[in-house]
Design a protein that fits this description.
It is built from 13 helices and 8 strands. The chain has helices spanning 8-21, 27-31, 36-43, 49-72, 76-95, 102-121, 166-174, 188-192, 200-217, 230-238, 262-271, 305-314, 335-348; strands spanning 125-133, 136-144, 151-155, 178-182, 223-228, 244-250, 290-297, 316-324. Strands 1-2-4-3-5-6-7-8 form an 8-stranded mixed beta sheet, sandwiched between helices.
Amino acid sequence: MNISKGSTSSTIQKTLMTARLFDGFWDRWIAHGIRESDCKELQSSLVTVEDWINGFSRFAKKYHDLATEYEQFQNRFEAEKWYRLTALYYNLMYWVFPDRSEEKKKWYQRVKEYVGKADQLSAISYKYDYIEIDGVKCVGRIRIPDHSKGCIVIINPIDSAKEELYTYENHFIQSHYTTVSFDGPGQGETYLLNGLKATQKRWETFVHKVIDFAASHFINQPIYLFGTSSGAAWSIYGSEHPKVERVVAVSPPIMEVPATPNYFTDRLALVMDKEAQSILPNLNTQSSYSSIFLFHGKKDVMVSTKDMHYFYERLLSPKMLVEYPEEGHCCNFKLHEVRDLAMEWFEKGDVKHEF
């Protein structure tokens, strides 16, 4: 899968067109904290990348000003919240550029700046660390609550960075789970700043090394995996690691080449090594996956219900499957419930719930 540097502007235009025309484009970002009213205000005007940057910059400044105001009044909780939201808007600005450009790096530094401000105000301990793949650093973010009762390794979708999913972190931390989230090959600063592109082999190594990292740093705690989309597929792959207790996988692509939007296919090509044929595990070559809790939206256009059912039947027990009739890929508007059920699964190995 190859895409030329000259095509990156075309990829951006495809992204902007999708954002303008399809409300579903915004589901992911709204689920992760972007205000729906902000999206609706800008959506029809996103014709150029300057429109995108200027529009989201305006909202980032608004939330930054709120954060600094709360900080001045020594309201650390509210200041942290608004700094995290500020970072998420800068994340949108960094994200829109698909290649390793200076513009992308500039906005990513803003993401790191405001995540850092939020972390310094937080009551939750945090640290950054790294593992190495092919001699290149993959940077990880670790948050450790008091009285941690387990470690949840969050495996992010290929098109996400570790800073994007802070709502997942916060939810798990509130229930006293440590969270571990690394940028893998082709992701976040591992790709943008350190230049490591994605291959299937690198991702296999990455998943094992992240699990080993968590197990070695949190020796007396159970290790769980939580992933969405491609991260869900790699979470299932990681379930065979002997240190992993249980896995939650939301909308894992079962087929090696799932149906993806055109703009996303182009973006993916830029983060893949030119020799790579796929960056997903082939889940159909193994039959020994177990302790898997699957979530599926029946309106998912990337992962069919038929494929999900076939895969689920082949899993070894214990296993569970929850389906949401009105949800699409990643079950974005059920993610809070998904995470609640995930933690129940982690703790009890079973879920008593009316669906």
